[in-house]
Amino acid sequence: MPNPTTAIDLITRSMKLAKLISGTETPTADEASDALATLNDVLENWDTQPLALWGTTNFTGSLAGGQASYTIGPGGDLNTTRPSQINGAFVQFNGVDFPVEPIGQLEFNVISLKSYQQPIPQSLLYVNDFPLGRVTVWPVPTVAIPITLTFDRVLTQISSLATAINYPPGAALALRYELAKQLAVEFGAPLDPQLVQMAADYRADYKRANKTPFKASYDMALVGVYGTGNWRTGG
Asked: 101: which strand partners?
C-alpha cells in the first residue's frame, strides 16, 4: 500500500479483502461512513496496546508555582496529544535536569502531606481521564518550572474519508487486514480463516518492529559500580 494513502483507499481495499465488494466496485457512501467509524474503533483499540504504538515522544510544558494538578490534552493546561500513559518525566531547575518518577494512584494515596511544596517535584501521578488526562506532581513546585514528559505516540483518529494516512512501516498493511476482518464481521460476511491468520501475522510483525529491548540492571552493591551484568558470561 502506498504510504501515505487516504482513508477511502484503505477502506476500499479492506472491503475487497473481505469480499464485501468486487474488484471493480467502490463502497457506497453509507458503507464508507460505517467503515470509517470502524477504522477509528480499531485505531482507538490499538492505542490501548503498547506495542501497537510506534515509539515515544517528548513534550515540554510548564508547571506553575503553587499548582499541583494540570489537565493534559488538546486545549488543556499541557496542550498536546492526550497520552494513554506517561513513561517518564524530568524538570529543569537552574539549568540542571532532575528526574520525576511516574507513580500509581496507590503510591500517591500514601503520601501524607500532598500539599507539601518545594522547588523541584519528585513524583508524578497520571490519571488517564477523558477527554483530558490529569497530571499531578509532588511535591508541589514553589516556582514556575519546565517539565518534559515522555509518552508513547498514539495513532490519531481519522477525521474524514479524504484524510491522508501516513503511518510507520508495517502499520498500513496490518491495519488493512485488521479492518477487513472487522468489516466482515460487521457486514455479516463469511470470515475467511486465512484472512484472520494473515491479520494476526501482519499485526504481530508490526508490533515486533515496535518492541524496544530492555537492558537488565541490578543493585550496584551486588554487581559493582556500573549496576549492569552480562548474563552470558556472568560478568
From this structure: 123
